[in-house]
Amino acid sequence: MTQNERRLYLIEALLDEQPKYRNIEIPQDDIQQKQLLRSLFNVRMPSPISEEFLIVQDEYLKEETVQKGITKLSELSPVEDNIYLWKGDITTLECGAVVNAANSGMTGCYVPCHNCIDNCIHTFSGIQLRNECERIMQEQGYEEPTGKAKITQAYNLPCDYVIHTVGPIVQGQLTDEHCTLLAGCYKNCLELAVKNGIESIAFCCISTGVFGFPQRKAAEIAVETVREFLQKHNIKVIFNVFRGDDHEIYKELLSGN
User: Fold this and answer.
1) Is the pTM of this model over 0.90?
2) Mean local confidence (pLDDT), 33-41
3) Angle at 156 between CA 132 and CA 85, to 5 degrees
C-alpha cells in the first residue's frame, strides 16, 4: 500500500467503526485527510481494534515520522555534562524516553487536532498508547496524582518509552506547593527512567502553556531538579522546547554555569 492508500484505509475503518461518523465525506486534499485522520484518532475511546488495522496504522505512522525527519540524540551536542537543549518536535526525537505532559485521566487529549504535547504524542504513537494508558488507569482505580509518573511503550514514536506525568495547574498566584509539585514531576520521571534502565530522557516544558505555570520559573525548577539528580545518577537529559521564548530562557539558564 502507498501512504495515501494507508491513510484512506485508516480513515474508512475509523469512520465505519462509529455509526455517527459514517456519513462524513472524506476530502480529496491530502492535508485535510490528515486532519480528519488525526481527529478520528483523537476522539476514539480506548477499545480493541483488529490486528490488520494496527499493521496498516503502524506502517503509516512510522512513514509519517520519517517524512518529518528523525533527530537522534547522537546528533546533538551537550550544553553541560549530560544535559542537552533542543528545539524541535519531540515526537521525532530518537532517545530512551520522552516525557508527556498528561492530564489526570492519563489517556490523552480528546480534542481533535489540539496542538498540546499530550495530543501530539498520542496521535503519532498510535491508538495502542491510549489503550495501554486505559489499562494502567483501570488497574490503578483512581486519577493520576499531580507530580507522579507512569511509563508506557512508545509504539510508533522513534523513542523507546513514554513517561507520563501530570503537572500542576496554576490558576491565579503561583504557590510553593505548585513549585514542589512541578519539581516532583521532574524527579519522579528521572527516577522512573533510571529504574527502567533508560539512558536518556527528553523533557517537554511541563505545566507551562494552558496549565498556566510561569515559563521562567518552570524552567528554573526543571534545571535545578535535573542538575541535582545528575549529581548522583548517570543519565542524559534533553530539555526539549518548541517555542523560541522557551529556548531563550533555557539557553540563558544553562549557559550561566
Assistant:
1) yes
2) 98
3) 105
